[in-house]
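Journal club side-thread
Mid-discussion, someone asked how the predicted structure for our own chain would compare to the paper's figures. Pasting it here so we can look after the session.
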Amino acid sequence: MRELAYTVSPDSELPYYGSVSLCAVIDSPVTAMEARFSQAFSHSPTGGAFLLLVLRTGAPLGLFAPPDRTCAYVAVRGYGDVRPQVEFLMEATGIPRESVRWLAPTDADSDGPRVVEGCDAHLGPPEPPWLAEVNASISAASDPRLRREPVTSRAEAKELFGNVFGAGREFGMIECTHGWVGRAVLTDAEIASGAGLGLGNYVLNKKTGAITAHRSLPPHLIGEEFDAAIEAGERVAGYQVYPPLQRIALFRTSEDARTVNYRVEVTRLDRQSDTATQHVEITKNPIRHKPTDRTSAVATSWALMRKNTTGTWPAEGTFDH
């Protein structure tokens, strides 16, 4: 069997692109790219669209279209030399080389990536469409209805981490100027199973008590990055996990050998009357979900976790997210 050139990542990976530089522009309409990839783009809250992939090379790559959907910006996570990864995607999908424009990397004196081929270098790309979703989730920490008392002592921080993630989970913590950086301490069995690969960090904001999830860099670097963002008045490079913003309820409506279907009800915890309902279809092997929005990805991850724990897909369940 021929190995696939790429696999589709769930929309829940979107926040991890919040601090990744754009490296190229593909001058092709989203509809044309969807036909090349045989995969629909997800809708962005800003009116644009995005598609998250993992290439056969192992590189996570994201495509981000502005609201007019006439092109897509490319971001590659975790690779110093990103050009070979973009060229691999071009070869695998038949994207014409003349439709790709490379961007200059961001530096300290610039306002963002600049187009260096095929366009006026002074016309930078629009604000990446995924930033609105990341910013919206983090800004909830400043909502008075969700704000906690300040957390300034190690004991308070340790207690809050335990309450949020379970008393049985130990966290290693370091203090930074504006927060506490926590990383789960894994058991020997978890380490042996590979759970430590890409293990992320969490930051507890001392002022608001909100906890955000961050990348798998060394904790002291995450702390430095968090402090720099706070002091510059910028959004932190993470997404909020506490206080929870939504209550998600799943109700299984059908199941066969290939798929399981759920009715998903999402309620805003700060506005109990604000409830939305959608239907999610989960393909069992390989795991995929339709639609490909973030709520569907979160619901799929929870249902899969329950299935892996109990051996069956849950009939129903409720969790806060």
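Post-session note: The two ends are 39 Å apart (CA to CA).
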